Amino acid sequence: MKNYTSTLIAFIILFHSCIGSDFTEYVPTCFNGSSFVKCPSSLTKKHQENIEKVFSHYNISFKKENNRIFYKGKIDDETLWNYTTKANDTMWLNSHF
Prior knowledge:
Distance between the termini: 55 Å
Oligomer: single chain
Number of domains: 1
Largest sheet: 3 strands, antiparallel
Radius of gyration: 18 Å
Strand order of the largest sheet: 1-5-4
Structural class: alpha+beta
């Protein structure tokens, strides 16, 4: 019975890690004039609310865990910058929601 329990626990951990591996934590992306950089200080509660709207608009699967947002799949830096910019743009948000 002990061996069965250990095997079951190992399987659950492996299964959970495989499922969760296709999600990436969202961090706002900025452009500094020559390259794209991560701007974690821009991640306010309002920005989180807005990026959820942007992800929904573009049909990006996402989830929230412990006040963090994770998106499914891979998104290149330029597109993340575009999404970050839209999440900060009240005119864009007002015209789409």
